[in-house]
Amino acid sequence: MIDQLKKQLEEVKSFTADSQDAIEAFRIKYLGKKGLLNDYFQELRNIPKEEKKVFGQTVNELKIAATEKIQELKNNLQDKEEVKSLYGDLTRPGEPLELGARHPTSLVKNQIIDIFSRIGFTVSEGPEIEDDWHNFTALNLPEYHPARDMQDTFFIQTDPDILLRTHTSSVQVRYMENHKPPIRTISPGRVYRNEAISARSHCFFHQVEGLYIDKGVSFADLKQTLQYFTTALFGKSRIRLRPSYFPFTEPSAEVDVYWGLETETDYRMTKGTGWLEIMGCGMVDPNVLDNCGIDSKEYSGFAFGMGIDRIALLLYQVSDIRLLSENDLRFLKQFKSIL
Ligand code: DAH
């Protein structure tokens, strides 16, 4: 009899159940009115005197074990249900995680950063909401300067001194105000112009500004740097510098890269000339250096600025600049394989 009780005790201790019904069935089996424990208590009367004590103790032990087991199983079940209502069914198959793609503008921006960081340029950034000094005046564009009209500016209505920067050249000024030469930095960022939106132009786009200031920097350094850049980005080393005008550089130039005329697309892109304009550049005007607290008698430097979106359109053969800001997943997903 005792042996049977001990076996039952083991059974109770190792019992598990994960439903309300199974626990209830277990309770009825052991603790119910017609349950096993009641039977054992009845049985106690018939047990010989010398065994009574051990038998009684074991039945009690069994009762306690069964009661505790029921409580434990009930608690477990409740915990599980709480987790379930919080997270749903934890055993269901996971939902596929969709990996995004980098935006083509970011892809090109990262490439440009990579190319210039290899020759010692750091990355610097400035605010998109700028003041007149950093966007215009310090860059040799005083009030009423006609060249201000070249850039259709969005002003913040309540304050004519505050505007959305029209170019990343404003970051040059901030950088020079806060750093001593030698300076080698590029400044990527978003810029704004009050222009009609079309396939070719948008009211906001992205530029990268480059700035190099040290003792004895020459135009030859500028040309060499740009040649290194076009070779690294496009695989094309033939460039030409056309004289141009920017208020913040003297002399100034526009940079064309020789794209070639191998395919029909080349013809279309270069309008039959083989040449593509990719950026503006020049030697930083001494006035600009002085405005920014750098002695123009001691230092000289070059600067350049280019549109990132235009280059992205070129490299990925996209025909409409608006696609870059419409967030159409069918377009963006095509860049998944590019890092
Ligand atoms: N800021 C000019 C623009 O937005 C681009 C530019 C031209 C930047 C010449 C320069 C530069 O630093 O030297 O059109």
Keywords:
three-stranded antiparallel sheet
Write the layout of secondary structure elements.
Blueprint: H1 2-14, H2 20-31, H3 36-43, H4 49-87, H5 104-117, E1 122-123, E2 129-131, H6 132-135, E3 155-156, E4 159-164, H7 169-178, E5 183-192, E6 204-214, H8 219-234, E7 239-246, E8 249-258, H9 264-269, E9 275-284, H10 286-291, E10 300-307, H11 308-315, H12 329-332
Parallel strand pairs: 1-5
Antiparallel strand pairs: 2-4, 3-4, 5-6, 6-10, 7-8, 8-9, 9-10
Helix pairs in contact: 1-4, 2-4, 5-11
Bound molecules: 3,4-dihydroxyphenylalanine.
Residues 167, 169, 209, 246, 249, 280-282, 303-305 line the site of 3,4-dihydroxyphenylalanine (DAH).
What does this structure look like?
- With 339 residues, the chain is an alpha+beta fold.
- The protein folds into two domains: 2-87; 104-335, BirA Bifunctional Protein, domain 2, CATH 3.30.930.
- It has twelve helices and ten strands.
- The chain has helices at residues 2-14, 20-31, 36-43, 49-87, 104-117, 132-135, 169-178, 219-234, 264-269, 286-291, 308-315, 329-332; strands at 122-123, 129-131, 155-156, 159-164, 183-192, 204-214, 239-246, 249-258, 275-284, 300-307.
- The strands form two sheets. Strands 1-5-6-10-9-8-7 form a seven-stranded mixed β-sheet, sandwiched between helices.
- The protein is elongated.
- The chain starts with a helix and ends in a 7-residue tail after the last helix.
- The model has no long low-confidence stretch (mean pLDDT 92).
- 3,4-dihydroxyphenylalanine (DAH) is lined by residues 167, 169, 209, 246, 249, 280-282, 303-305.
